[in-house]
Amino acid sequence: MNNGEDATSEFRVIDPDTRLMLRVRDDDAQAFEELVRRYQGRLMAVFQNMFSDREQAEDLVQDVFLRVFRARHTYTPDAKFATWLFTIAHNVAKNSRRSRARRKEVSVSAEDSGGMVANPLEHLATAASGQMPTRQVDRRERAEMVRLAMETLNDRQRMAVLLSKFEGMSYIDIASAMDLTPQAIKSLLTRARNNLRLVLEPYIEQGTRLANDSPQ
Predict the structure, then answer these.
(1) Is 80 helix (H, G, I), strand (E, B) or coil?
(2) What is the C-alpha separation between 88 and 54, in angstroms, rounded?
(3) pTM of the model
(4) Burial grade of 161 (CB within 10 A; 0-12, 13-18, 19 or more)
(5) Could you give the domains of the chain?
(6) Mapped to the 3 state alphabet, what secondary structure does 135-202 carry?
(7) Which has the closest alpha carbon to 46: 87, 11, 15, 104?
(8) CA separation for the pair 169, 208 (Å, rounded)
(9) How far apart are CA 37 and CA 42, in angstroms?
(10) Would you give the end-to-end CA distance of the chain in angstroms?
(11) How many C-beta atoms lie closer than 10 Å to residue 139's C-beta?
(12) What is the tens place of the pLDDT at every residue in 127-155?
């Protein structure tokens, strides 16, 4: 038996979702419904955090599962099913981002650009500081600041963070999903965390300071 056959057998035996997908490959509709049930919410979480738009996230989740269904007859279990699925999700997200960028370019070219914000990080800082209450930030406000900070990351950093945070995927699995090396993923995540810390720390510190200075 060659190495490829060894890997196929390993994933078929170990990964229950791979076994489900093999049933989907054989046109088992019930198995496909089970995979949708298992992964729909997880994909929604990633796409909503990528694009901050629930309607768009729902459309992208549907797109991912449509691609999974169309590719069922050529599916080969040479990786865990989740890794294969999030490879598709990553490609769908990239395509969506490109389409949005093209639409935005057309929209901007047709309008007066004089009111555009020159520096998105300055805009983020202004928005975040304007939301800072005169007490320590609560969970909802902190979540909003994190969402705004995530907007400062580039697409690859954001996807790597989301796959690490929401899916708990290893560097190797994220690298496979994003077609990068594990070392590149490690560097992406390090830069992303540093960027998030750079953006968030001043507001967390300010909120704490204001809370400590407020009357008891």
Answers:
(1) coil
(2) 19
(3) 0.69
(4) buried
(5) 1-116 (1.10.1740.10), 118-216 (1.10.10.10)
(6) CCCCHHHHHHHHHHHHCCCCHHHHHHHHHHHHHCCCHHHHHHHHCCCHHHHHHHHHHHHHHHHHHHHH
(7) 87
(8) 33
(9) 10
(10) 73
(11) 7
(12) 444 444 434 446 666 667 777 788 888 88
